[in-house]
Specification:
The chain is an all-beta fold. The protein has one domain: Jelly Rolls (Sandwich), CATH 2.60.120.200. 2% of the residues lie in helices and 36% in strands. The chain is globular.
Length: 200
């Protein structure tokens, strides 16, 4: 589509299309107990994810998925569309069910590290009705901090997501890391580690 003049653009309304995030009002600073924690350190290979209750799913059935990686004794999950030959690569890494019925003031934190930055293409979601079919579930996006790395070299530092309240949710929930890449244009590499849910 080509425009000869900016006057050809007509805005129907002035509302922005910013993401709508889950907004819980729980206490982020209370003394809390571990409800769920995964640092991936006991994994021997990527296939162990299934036995651990995680789902590692490429929506278009491509080969690109999260993979086990390790460096200096630390194990983490890594995803990149680089050299995947996938024009559109949507991959979900979903936690096992996490039950919130016996706790309050639940808080999620995790760590990410990005490198070879070509844009922020990782988002994080939560659902309390996911049952095998991603498209049929109700997903709410979480307002988290995602690492931004350098464009030309590997980033060495993991950064915290910040604390995200899950206090307004009940029952079994699942956290999803959603990667939307495209080779060769959107290929940012992400490492994910230390996924933690705390509660009272």
């Amino acid at each position: 589509m080509l425009l000869n003049d900016p006057l050809g653009i007509k805005l129907i309304n002035n509302e922005r299309c910013d993401p709508i995030y889950l907004n819980c009002e729980g206490n982020l600073e209370s003394d809390q107990n571990i409800i769920f924690y995964e640092d991936f350190d006991l994994m021997k290979n990527t296939k162990d994810l299934k036995e651990m209750g995680w789902l590692n799913y490429n929506v278009d059935f491509g080969n690109g998925k999260f993979k086990k990686r390790s460096k200096n004794g630390n194990v983490y999950m890594q995803i990149s569309a680089y050299n995947s030959e996938e024009d559109f690569m949507e991959v979900w890494l979903i936690t096992p069910k996490i039950n919130l019925d016996q706790s309050t003031d639940e808080v999620l934190t995790f760590k990410t590290r990005s490198s070879f930055e070509t844009g922020t293409i990782l988002t994080v979601w939560v659902s309390n009705d996911f049952d095998e079919n991603i498209q049929n579930a109700t997903w709410k996006q979480l307002d988290v901090t995602i690492s931004k790395g350098s464009k030309g070299s590997e980033n060495t530092d993991f950064i915290s997501s910040g604390k995200v309240s899950l206090d307004c949710l009940q029952g079994n929930i699942q956290i999803a890391f959603k990667y939307q890449g495209s080779d060769p244009n959107k290929t940012t590499t992400y490492d994910i580690d230390h996924v933690l849910v705390l509660g009272n």
